[in-house]
Amino acid sequence: MMRRSRYAGTPNIGVYAAVNESLGFVACDAASEFIGDLEKALEIETIMTTVAGSYVVGSLVAMNSYGAVVSAFAEEQELDVIRRHIPAVTVRDLMSAAGNNILVNDHGAIVNPGMGSKAMATVTDVLGVEAVKMTIGGCDTVGSVCCATNIGCVCTPDATDGEMELIADVLKVDVKRASVNHGVKYLGAGLLANSKGALMGDETTPIEMGKIEDGLNLF
């Protein structure tokens, strides 16, 4: 299912939630309308929380079906909430905004090239997939400019053909260029998706919705 929504007056909904095939961790101040939109579009269970005392859960958590990587600044009680539902580890690295710095599905992961080797090993272990370093469209924060599921991926219009080929090789899905929220290239900030559906910011145009639907193979 394809739906549009808004979180607390902003269309940048991906900043405030992290999702996989069955779960969504969502900022604990999210309105019931946003929660309803997310659950209907992606057919997931939602769990409300903060990370590091912050509502920007999507920026600070990266996850697939096997595990979650969480900012090192997360508090123990927040980790307890997440670990009740999925294995989770913190990343003690300069790139601790995991959601911004990791693009992942159940087949592979792409990470900020500035991430250290110890953090890379942690990512590979908890997510259960191979991790590869690269930039996408000149951007180090690869999770912010792409959105990947187990059946498709959409990425910034700035991505080169070579980068798209590498993304497809690592994540084992087709990759298409797209934008969200009327021309915004930060797909990760404006879009939440899994193989069952997508929820995007409510400023996303019908043409953009079509490209996202095509890129994520949501037919």
Describe the protein in words:
The chain is an alpha/beta fold and 219 residues long. It has a single domain, classed as 5-stranded Propeller (L-arginine/glycine Amidinotransferase, Chain A). 29% of the residues lie in helices and 25% in strands. It contains eight helices and 15 strands. It has helices spanning 32-42, 57-60, 76-83, 98-101, 117-127, 161-171, 187-190, 206-215; strands at 2-5, 17-19, 23-27, 45-49, 61-63, 68-71, 88-91, 102-104, 109-111, 131-133, 146-148, 153-155, 175-177, 191-194, 197-201. The strands form five sheets. The protein has a three-stranded mixed sheet, with helices on both faces. A three-stranded mixed sheet has the order 2-3-4, with helices on both faces. It has a three-stranded mixed sheet with strand order 5-6-7, sandwiched between helices. It is globular and about 40 Å long. The mean pLDDT is 96.
What is the overall shape? globular
Query: Under the CATH scheme, which architecture would be assigned?
Result: 5-stranded Propeller
CATH class: Alpha Beta
Residue runs with pLDDT of under 50 for 5 or more positions: none
The first-to-last residue Cα distance is 9 Å
Average pLDDT across residues? Answer: 96
Number of strands: 15
Radius of gyration: 15 Å
Q: What is the H/E string?
A: EEEHEHEEHEHEEHEEEHEHEEH
Broad structural category: alpha/beta
Helix segment tally: 8
- Would you give the CATH topology? L-arginine/glycine Amidinotransferase, Chain A
Summarize the main sheet: 3 strands, mixed
Q: How much of the residues is beta strand, in percent?
A: 25-35%
Strand order of the largest sheet: 1-15-14
Total number of domains: 1
User: What is the CATH superfamily label?
Assistant: L-arginine/glycine Amidinotransferase, Chain A
